[in-house]
Amino acid sequence: MAKARRGRKPVRRARDPDAGGGTREHWRADGAPKSQYGSADEANRYALQVRLEDGVDLDPYTCSICGHWHLGNRRD
Ligand SMILES: [Zn+2]
After folding, report:
1. What is the DSSP string of the chain?
2. What is the pLDDT of residue 45?
3. What pTM did the predictor assign?
4. Which of 10, 44, 46, 73 would you label with 35, given CA atoms 20 to 30 Å apart?
């Protein structure tokens, strides 16, 4: 069996500690694809709406998998 690599955990300030391979930018933690936005404007508008309604600060970013915009949780 593979050895557990305990000392090799990356200590970067990743958006998600489980992020690996870059697929998390397109899929949510539950495996469903994230909502797509066609432009930064659209993504920003939705991010603002969520912040006002839910108090959640979301970070728009371009996805390298689908090329659209998604919103991610900012955790800092
Ligand atoms: Zn995507």
Report:
1. -PPP-GGG---S--SSTT--TTGGGTB-TTSPBPP-BSSHHHHHHHHHHHHHHH---EEEEE-TTTSSEEEEE---
2. 97
3. 0.65
4. 10
What would the pLDDT profile of 20-50 be if each residue is shown by its tens digit? Answer: 556 888 998 899 999 999 999 999 999 999 9
What integer is the mean pLDDT of 48-57? 95
Give the Å distance between the CA of 59 and the centre of ligand 1.
14
CB 49 within 8 A of CB 43: no
Residue type, 44: N
C-alpha 28 to ligand 1 mean position (Å) = 10
* pLDDT score recorded for residue 65: 93
CB within 8 Å of 46: residues ≥ 6 apart = 35, 37, 58, 71
Q: Which amino acid is at 73?
A: N
